[in-house]
């Protein structure tokens, strides 16, 4: 089956970059990305490529090349579904905030809405592709809705989870470790649908990196790949605390562990805690699924990854408070970074939000400098926790456009995101303008500790005894 028109529902961090790369690599396929959020669509269509709603290195050039040629962003969802041979569902699947499974299960209301809309807008047979990360066996529900609420057309459901990481989305999409396609391997139509999607990726991905499986393995592999990655970060972070008590150095330990070819060096970078829209949500979802199958020990095992992460964020905040003589009330504390990692404007579940919340509870005045995150976004993030009033949040937390202004007069600086530019700051100038003793809490172990200590700073780095 030859695919000539693709529709993607959801123009977010996954839908936007993924479809931009498909469009760039497959100029003969028309790709329409649709969203109910008109402001987001307008931003994707913005003439100024620096105003795209998702910041990713290299994305502006790809959108610039394909947009208007075979890549389109629109809010006309029904029309795009009707025209397409293949419809990707790439909507958000956050943790439920209400009802059964609150705080753990994935909220699938947007997925169900998409399935119903695809069924009602379709005027021909279609392949429906789950791109969102979903609990294992969601395809069963999607198929049930499509088969029972549609206009008699046939649907094949594929699972094609996305493995890109933010900040490196474009390179991950252009050169993926693997592309995973789950489908109905027991029928001719299922195999044809799988092949149709394999053919799309085969335009640029070598065939040995395109894996096909049954739908359930594909759905489950995505959740568990994220759980494995997060587990590595929690493992190294748990050891960082032990290093601080024993004079072992977390970098020396991490290097020694990672040199074992069976373990490997990646994802052993100690930090203030992992953030992002995926790790916590997907592990919580995995925990919920395990409990719902009565697998309580398995659920407890994975839940511990989250507990260590919460502990890591909490102990970082406590370290700041303790080092500032157990009181931060009325003191200026500067945050360098608010995004959950460098090279993205995404702040979902960023450790910075939780560390800020704990310090604000103690009455600290926080000034934040982040090169890509707006003040509005910071307020949305902190208000969302509902810990104090919006007025109080605006009184205690502000953003600054200039890192030197953010640091001027501060009692302490905390590095929350590993933006490269923080290394290049004039640290002598910052020292001269700060309250003494000057303290830096490096939640990313980004800065040159020795150099800073030579200037006169007291430096706390994760996993290093000072
Ligand atoms: P996002 O919130 O950035 O984007 C989702 C978009 O879907 C939003 O713009 C929203 O308006 C739109 N939407 C919701 N319901 C809709 C509907 N009925 N019709 C049209 N548009 C609708 O989310 P994201 O980060 O792109 O994540 C999407 C999915 O991909 C999630 O399941 C996530 O777990 C998964 N995922 C995310 C990443 C990542 O790094 N962000 C990586 C891999 C997988
Ligand atoms: C993750 C997965 O990596 C990706 O494959 C999946 O598709 C989506 O979820 P993402 O959340 O975008 O990607 O970024 P990632 O690079 O995994 O980082 C997640 C968090 O872990 C960040 O806060 C990062 O700073 C932190 N991290 C990562 C560490 O603290 N130490 C590490 O060694 C690696």
From TrEMBL:
Matches recorded under NCBIfam families: NDP-sugDHase
All copies of domain UDP-glucose/GDP-mannose dehydrogenase C-terminal, residue ranges: 334-449
EC number: 1.1.1.22
Listed name of the protein: UDP-glucose 6-dehydrogenase
Pathway: Nucleotide-sugar biosynthesis; UDP-alpha-D-glucuronate biosynthesis; UDP-alpha-D-glucuronate from UDP-alpha-D-glucose: step 1/1
Entry-linked PANTHER family: UDP-GLUCOSE 6-DEHYDROGENASE (PTHR11374:SF3), UDP-GLUCOSE DEHYDROGENASE/UDP-MANNAC DEHYDROGENASE (PTHR11374)
UniProt keywords, alphabetically: NAD, Oxidoreductase
Catalytic activity: UDP-alpha-D-glucose + 2 NAD(+) + H2O = UDP-alpha-D-glucuronate + 2 NADH + 3 H(+)
Broad EC category: oxidoreductase
Alphabetical list of InterPro entries matching this protein: 6-PGluconate_DH-like_C_sf, NAD(P)-bd_dom_sf, UDP-Glc/GDP-Man, UDP-Glc/GDP-Man_DH_C, UDP-Glc/GDP-Man_DH_C_sf, UDP-Glc/GDP-Man_DH_dimer, UDP-Glc/GDP-Man_DH_N, UDPglc_DH_euk
Pfam families documented for this protein: UDPG_MGDP_dh (PF00984), UDPG_MGDP_dh_C (PF03720), UDPG_MGDP_dh_N (PF03721)
Signal sequence, start to end: none
UniProt similarity note: Belongs to the UDP-glucose/GDP-mannose dehydrogenase family.
